[in-house]
Write a structure and sequence with these properties.
Blueprint lengths: L1 E3 L3 H12 L4 E4 L5 E8 L2 E8 L2 E8 L2 E3 L2 E2 L3 E16 L7 E15 L6 E9 L2 E7 L9 E7 L2 E4 L4 E5 L6 E5 H5 L4 E10 L5 E7 L7 E5 L6 E6 L2 E4 L6 E7 L2 H5 L3 H4 L15 E5 L18 H14 L3 E4 L21 E3 L9 E3 L11 H10 L3 E7 H6 L2 H11 L3 E5 L5 H17 L3 E4 L16 E4 L14 H7 L21 H4 L11 H10 L4 E3 L4 H5 L2 H9 L6 E8 L3 E8 L2 E8 L4 E6 L9 E8 L12 E8 L4 E6 L4 E8 L2
Helix pairs in contact: 5-6, 12-14
């Protein structure tokens, strides 16, 4: 790690400027972005310029406390430093990335008798600005400080176009920022992505959500494209810090996706030995339930089905199998013990309702549910088992003891569902759960309205993914091709997503699968492409083994995915329209494209290949007559020789996709 500090003379100069009220500029290392700080009538303000274009006009900074706002402030000191370090990743879009910024710490004190001190810490990166607050110890604060709300303002310079996160629905937008502003309560959940008329893109996000409630945006009165951050009432210990309020900036939507800004703002990895943390693909029992094969087998939530999943995973190098709800009993029953294997069968009486009920097993049940035995079977084949775990079970049974048991069994991780609560409690509970999982060497996947990703996989890389999106076929519905092309530019900005792409049975799965309630509007090549496009430490495949075996030549692309990368590039991208993602592992490149309901052809220029090398490119393409509504499973595969500088046309059907696997020719 290399960290450089500016000299004390600079700090004195900046401090003097702020005392007399002159604005102080904090540029990024390459001066591409700059924030300007000023003290106006005792209230701190900030504004942001990028590439010579104003993005944020002057807006207030600060916190609102339970006993009111701070009184007028004056500057005590300003210190600056430059951070320049290289961060090695456990897994991710890159093998390493640069944490490089200029940082300013602005110490202010009330001029009133209470004389409380507030520190504003601002970092200027080449791809964004971040601000957080510290409440120093021994500076007028009680040991526990009650925070009522946030005062940070985002005053956009134009009524630009925006999209924002909308839970398990497709993102809200595109619409003018003034339209968000009309909301009576929460104007926008984060991320809020903004496209300026110039083509510049920005995103309001939050990094290192560790201690207090996550934030949203509310309308700022009197300014149609301006917002104030808001969080639920929280407490903070004296000496504590808030999360980072960030403005991510890029020339294109794709630039935002390749920024490591959120990870840079999180603490270093807290796990000493990370060798056990392996990202990967996972088979999944939930959506495949009810599939009937040519040999007469019907998939269920049972041992014979799970062993078939494991056998397929072992044969094709798939690292995991996820056992979803029901393996230890009805998930919403307080008496369902997560330390046991359920002694009954599960059925779904109403095909239009997700409700499950127990059913007595046959008197001579030859293959009863035995999860420890299944884990042993899978481990012998080098396949890890991820166990579903409902929040109710944590409340009613000893959590640490249960995780220790899972570790003893040899489980690979947990999929955590339906956490109750909100605000600060949910943040603290999530942090505790992820930390406990790390102590027991368990991966962790959060579902059902989790706290937002915030770069926290840097600190706890066992936190491999979460359902911070509309996961495919979830909530009794499927998303459209346009919805997918919005989610990857909005939801995925925050971090790894569990979107459950990769369904290969597309003609009519809603007819005979209990957990597919609406057919998926996609092509089978688009489903393949989406698995790679969606960044995740655990990509969960929703179909049965036979569906993939029936299209083994297409499934080859998924089977080859390494799931952690040395390099990632976004070659094409327009929110709601299309995306092309290229990722490198060693000398191999994997490229995937997806489009909305419109057919299109995107040129893929192979400038990133090494010179004087010949490569074999396998192209996985929609058939000429493929269509996301009428001919979903039509595809073709071809191989060509390529070299640096060549071009491949990614031609896609309506709602379709395109995949390329490139490796050196032997």
């Amino acid at each position: 790690m290399r960290i450089r500090f500016y000299c004390f003379l600079v700090a004195v100069s900046l401090s003097t400027s702020l005392v007399v009220g002159q604005p102080v500029e904090v540029p990024s290392p390459n001066s591409r972005i700059a924030a300007t700080l000023s003290l106006v009538e005792g209230v701190p303000h900030w504004q942001v310029v990028a590439l010579g274009q104003p993005l944020l006009e002057p807006g207030k900074l600060g916190l609102h406390f339970a006993d009111g706002n701070l009184g007028p402030l004056h500057t005590l000191a300003v210190t600056t430093r430059s951070i320049d370090e290289t961060i090695e990743t456990t897994w991710g879009k890159f093998s390493q990335y640069a944490n490089r910024c200029n940082e300013l710490t602005w110490t202010l004190r009330e001029t009133t008798a209470t004389a409380r001190t507030l520190q504003i810490i601002l970092r200027a990166y080449d791809d964004g600005i971040a601000v957080r607050y510290r409440l120093p110890e021994h500076s007028g604060w009680d040991s526990t400080i009650r925070l009522a709300d946030d005062l940070t303002e985002y005053c956009f310079s134009e009524d630009a176009t925006g999209w924002c996160y909308a839970g398990e629905h497709d993102p809200i937008g595109p619409q003018p920022l003034s339209r968000f502003h009309q909301s009576e309560k929460i104007a926008a959940r984060l991320p809020l992505v903004v496209q300026f008329p110039s083509g510049l893109h920005a995103a309001v996000m939050e990094a290192a959500i560790e201690h207090i409630a996550p934030m949203d945006l509310v309308a700022l009165e009197g300014r149609d494209s301006s917002f104030r951050t808001h969080f639920a009432a929280s407490t903070l210990a004296s000496g504590g810090v808030t999360s980072w309020r960030t403005l991510l900036v890029g020339k294109s939507a794709g630039d935002l996706l390749t920024s490591p800004l959120l990870e840079c703002l999180n603490p270093a990895c807290a796990i000493e030995d990370t060798d056990w943390i392996q990202p990967g693909l996972a088979m999944w029992d939930w959506r495949a339930w009810g599939a009937t094969t040519d040999d007469g087998f019907t998939y269920g939530l049972d041992m014979p089905s799970w062993r078939r999943f494991v056998d397929f995973a072992a044969t094709h190098g798939i690292g995991y199998l996820v056992l979803d709800a029901g393996w230890y009993g009805l998930e919403f029953e307080a008496t369902s013990d997560p330390r046991t294997s359920r002694p009954y069968l599960l059925v779904q009486p109403d095909p239009k309702s997700p409700r499950l009920v127990p059913q007595d097993p046959p008197a001579n049940w030859q293959d009863p549910t035995d999860i420890p035995e299944l884990i042993r079977y899978a481990r012998d084949k080098e396949v890890g088992i991820i166990l579903y775990f409902n929040d109710i079970a944590r409340v009613n049974f000893p959590f640490d003891e249960t995780l220790a048991l899972y570790q003893k069994w040899g489980a690979a991780g947990i999929k955590y569902g339906f956490m109750k609560g909100n605000g600060q409690k949910k943040v603290l509970d999530t942090r505790m759960i992820v930390k406990k999982c790390a102590e027991h060497q368990l991966l962790c996947d959060f579902h059902d309205d989790p706290i937002p990703p915030s770069g926290d996989q840097r600190t706890y890389p066992n936190y491999v993914t979460r359902e911070f999106c509309h996961s495919q076929s979830d909530a009794l519905r499927s998303f459209s091709p346009s919805d997918f092309c919005e989610q990857v530019f909005v939801n995925m900005l925050a971090g790894p997503l569990d979107m459950c792409n990769g369904l290969y049975t597309l003609e009519n799965p809603a007819r005979d699968r209990p957990k597919v309630f609406m057919n998926v509007d996609s092509t089978v090549v688009a489903e393949t492409a989406r698995v790679m496009i969606v960044f995740s430490g655990l990509s969960i495949l929703p179909d049965c083994p036979e569906a993939y075996e029936a299209k083994a030549d297409l499934f080859e692309f998924l089977g080859k995915l390494p799931m952690t990368w040395q390099e990632t590039r976004i070659l094409h991208g327009k929110i709601g329209h299309f995306i092309t993602t290229a990722r490198r592992s060693g000398s191999e490149w994997f490229i995937a494209s997806a489009t909305n309901e419109q057919s299109r052809s995107l040129p893929i220029k192979l400038d990133f290949l090494e010179p004087n090398q010949t490569y074999t490119a396998t192209l996985y393409e929609d058939a000429p007559d493929a269509d996301y509504l009428h001919n979903r499973e039509a595809y073709r595969i071809r191989r060509i020789e390529v070299k640096q500088g060549d071009k491949i046309d990614a031609t896609m059907a309506p709602g379709g996709g395109h995949c390329v696997w490139i490796r050196r020719t032997q």
